[in-house]
Design goal:
single chain; about 240 residues; alpha/beta; Rossmann fold; 9 helices
Length: about 240
């Protein structure tokens, strides 16, 4: 049996190699969509003036890369006084790719909108915030808290999801698909409009894709994350152990 995962291969394949040895399966990786930065022209349509902002909120590494690329494209030199508020430590550490990491200007939460607003508190309330997101992102959880706290903010789209042509993949050769994002499903539908997705077991990892699959009336063989399923590899393990 072959299992297809809708992402690029991670740097550490140990968990998947263990699955291959344990069950005699073959795990393959292929990204179903790509995240691309907006062009300067696309960004300008939002009518946002980057120099107006003294603080920025990041929830992904893609948004960080897109922001600094955009700054280069529009010839905006990011001031050293800029403050960065990140949803997680992993995202915050990624800033080292672009700026000198200083704790006095880089802050990170625990992955929740509440933790980001708590970091801001009274001390940084006077900043003007740029809240970054993707074209498909939902910023309501954090912006509602910003409004409640009386913070000055603007939402800016920096990245977009672009579906990939998957027609070269022989879906019928796989015993299961692992999907992470609603865009995975969108790419599948675009590339295989006549393929019956009910004929192949679907493993979901993420609330968004689980919701998208259920809305289309598609069954989910294994759904994660859960307290017992904290990785896609574990979800595959649970699926294969039931066979």
């Amino acid at each position: 049996m072959k299992v297809l995962i809708s992402q690029k291969a991670p740097s550490n394949l140990k968990a998947y190699q263990s699955l291959e040895e344990k069950y005699g399966v073959q795990v393959e990786f292929h990204p179903f969509f790509l995240i691309e930065p907006l062009s300067a022209k696309e960004f300008r349509s939002q009518r946002i003036n980057l120099p107006d902002y003294t603080a920025i909120v990041f929830s992904s590494r893609h948004a960080i890369d897109a922001y600094f690329k955009l700054c280069e494209d529009v010839r905006f030199k990011v001031p050293e006084t800029m403050k960065y508020f990140c949803t997680t430590e992993l995202v915050a550490l990624y800033l080292q790719k672009h700026v000198v990491y200083r704790k006095r200007k880089i802050f990170f939460g625990d992955g929740t909108p509440q933790s980001v607003v708590a970091l801001i508190g009274p001390k940084h309330k006077g900043e003007k915030f740029l809240v970054t997101t993707s074209a498909e992102g939902n910023t309501t959880p954090i912006t509602s808290l910003f409004e409640k706290a009386g913070l000055d903010y603007t939402v800016s789209v920096l990245v977009k999801s672009v579906t990939q042509d998957l027609s070269g993949i022989m879906l019928e050769n796989y015993g299961a698909l692992v999907l992470y994002n609603p865009y995975d499903l969108k790419s599948l539908r675009a590339s295989f409009p006549d393929f019956d997705l009910k004929s192949i077991p679907l493993i979901s990892y993420g609330k968004g894709i689980a919701k998208a699959l259920k809305e289309e009336g598609l069954s989910i063989a294994v759904e994660g994350p859960t307290p017992d399923i904290q990785s896609a590899a574990k979800a595959i393990d649970v699926f294969l152990s039931s066979k």
